[in-house]
Design goal:
2 copies of one chain form a homodimer. By secondary structure, chain A is α/β, with parallel strands linked by helices. Chain A has 15 helices and 16 strands. In chain A, the strands form 4 sheets. In chain A, strands 4-14-13-12-11-10-6-5 form an 8-stranded parallel sheet. A 3-stranded antiparallel sheet of chain A has the order 1-2-3. In chain A, strand 8 and strand 9 form a beta hairpin. In chain A, helix 6 crosses helix 7 (157-177).
Chain lengths: 373, 373
């Protein structure tokens, strides 16, 4: 039996949004869900206890980064990623593909795999589908991603076609290399850039393989939002109803709801913690750039509708002071709030699906949040 | 009645170490005590809740820094420092003197006060004893320090004598300027550099004023440790038994115990959090520089004898990984441990005084910690 099992609870009568559960070796998660990113085996500035408190159910960690530092052998020797970082709930690892391809001129792609130089010290490395899975097996996440190529945007059709076909061949090698199918579920990734016919081709190729879940990759890479929604809307109907669907690298509140509307179950992004460290937060009334002078004497909470500890205990004036002074506590408090905000948003989305009013919920949220559509 | 009242519980029969309590408007603290430093209204990387958990009873904050950012008027408008930073236990503020004098060529001392340029933007400022107390009154700490001059080390006798006499005259002005003696206790500061006769002169001058507490300033400024202990040992006997005694700026485990041995009740220092952010920790077996390669595969806790959450939940290998990657969580976990270590050390010291075995306790600690004396 596979390590991962998806259970579809219901589909919203107002929309294509799905309510479900994913059962993993480290527990069950409710979908649709937002997954905080813990790149280097830590969700930046946040403790696992705090992730529990904000009701995070699963986190993502990055294979490329952990391969570089501290090295997957050290994580394996520690007893795996869960034990290493003191997080006993589900983890998903990406394959490192996205990071390696982002290295640009530092990497060279062949059929065998990718040769690249470390972003840290310039040392030479080679990652193949087999190597990626070996690393992911060592890290021990509940869900592991196939080694794919994420084509950039824009990219010409021929490049994208070659790339997606290679991704299919690499998936087959990943499946063969996977040593722990009972403990870790391998997800395949649909590519195809912004070309609908190539999305269809990739979906048909990837979905030939019976895997416990599938992802949509290569979106949110710089294209206009409407294009992303359009490609996504075209792609998800190819995907099976009895398997989880993961949209990679998406994390703004509007993108999350647009993805859920189109039948996506899982999303991840560094956005909430990254913008928090720069002093920007999501609130029920839209984004707030807390370092602006206008908040210097604003003694109200970040978001009056939020019940997170940051909003309950601290004023905008204090948070602005921390951010202006580059105090670590500022990054902590804002990161907590932003993660809490997205997790709560998805919790509310689940309730709306349950109540067959997801479309209405989304409209209400957008109106309040300040989106014009 | 003064805002601050000291209660001497007992003096150790083995040594001059004192066990006591200080009653303040925000609660009672047990002495001897170590006070974590929250320079900019935050103990760097640590939440107030965590300070409670590690049993911190009082923290220190810096007047100069808060005057610069966010400005004492903002803190006052927020309802005072306690409310601004969400810390409902006692706070002590220094007077800004030490920071201003540390600015070196950026400042000019006159009888009236100190003219200086901001370390942030070069803007011109003037702080007098009256201004320092005005700021401290606005911040609203339980204990506020007089505006003094801390002479550097080395400094010639004439300079130190002039300086300590000015400090006495400034103390008188501070007392007159103090608007809230019922709510905030003003402490005087004994100076005199490394000259015993000048320490005696300063003590005699400062102690003429009936204040709720007195500090020893101008030590731990670069002099050899033995010299500091010697000057301290000479100075504390001048100080009254019924008032708290505060040694400013001291925070290594050995210095804390040497200070307590000489009858000191309160100490503060940025050392534990500063070295933590650089990856160095105190342990029961001495200092550990966690970024060293030797800990890369060390899956044991930082300090096997420590019961703090960092030691209970994380390995040296994980903490080293975080520090090497400049992850905020590394600074958090190590800062927590170091503060917990010093707070626990002082708790153990109090028990040892209660049991009339402080000298024995100190010897045992030093032996284990790796000091040769």
């Amino acid at each position: 039996m596979s390590a991962i099992r998806y259970e579809l609870i219901k589909t919203c009568k107002e929309s294509g949004a799905r309510l479900g559960r994913i059962h993993t070796p480290h527990g069950t998660i409710d979908t649709p869900i937002f997954m905080p990113v813990g790149t280097l085996a830590t969700v930046k500035s946040i403790l696992p206890e705090e992730l529990h408190t904000m009701k995070a159910q699963i986190i993502l960690s990055n294979t490329y980064h952990l391969y570089m530092r501290p090295g997957h052998d050290i994580v394996e020797q520690a007893g795996g990623l869960h034990k290493f970082m003191n997080w006993n709930k589900p983890i998903l690892t990406d394959s490192g593909g996205f990071q390696v391809f982002s290295l640009g001129p530092l990497r060279k792609i062949t059929e065998e795999g990718v040769q690249f130089r470390s972003h840290l010290d310039g040392s030479k490395h080679f990652i193949s589908p087999e190597k990626a899975i070996e690393i992911e097996n060592a890290l021990g996440a509940d869900i592991i991603m196939a080694f794919d190529e994420c084509a950039p945007y824009p990219a010409d059709r021929m490049y994208v076609k070659d790339s997606l076909e290679r991704t299919t061949r690499w998936l087959e090698r990943c499946i063969k290399a996977h040593k722990k199918p009972q403990e870790q579920g391998l997800f395949g990734i649909i590519q195809g850039g912004m070309y609908k016919d190539l999305r269809k081709q990739s979906a048909q190729e990837i979905l030939q393989y019976d895997l416990p879940g599938y992802a949509v990759g290569g979106l949110s890479v710089g294209e206009p939002k409407e294009m992303m929604y359009d490609v996504l809307e075209y792609t998800t109907p190819f995907m099976p109803k009895d398997k989880p669907r993961y949209l990679m690298g998406v994390g703004s509140p509007d993108d999350l709801l647009e993805a859920v509307l189109r039948g996506i179950d899982m999303c991840d992004c560094v956005l909430p913690t990254r913008i928090a460290r720069n002093g920007t937060v999501f609130t029920s009334q839209g984004k707030v750039v807390i370092r602006n002078a206008t908040y210097a004497r604003d003694f109200s909470p970040l978001d009056p509708e939020c019940d997170c500890p940051t909003c309950k205990n601290y004023s905008r004036a204090y948070l602005r002071h921390l951010v202006k002074c580059n105090e670590i506590l500022g990054a902590r408090l804002l990161s907590y709030h932003n993660l809490h905000f997205l997790i709560k948003l998805m919790e509310d989305a689940r309730q709306a699906i349950m109540d067959d009013r997801f479309l209405t919920f989304k409209k209400e949220f957008f109106k309040k949040y300040g989106y014009t559509k």
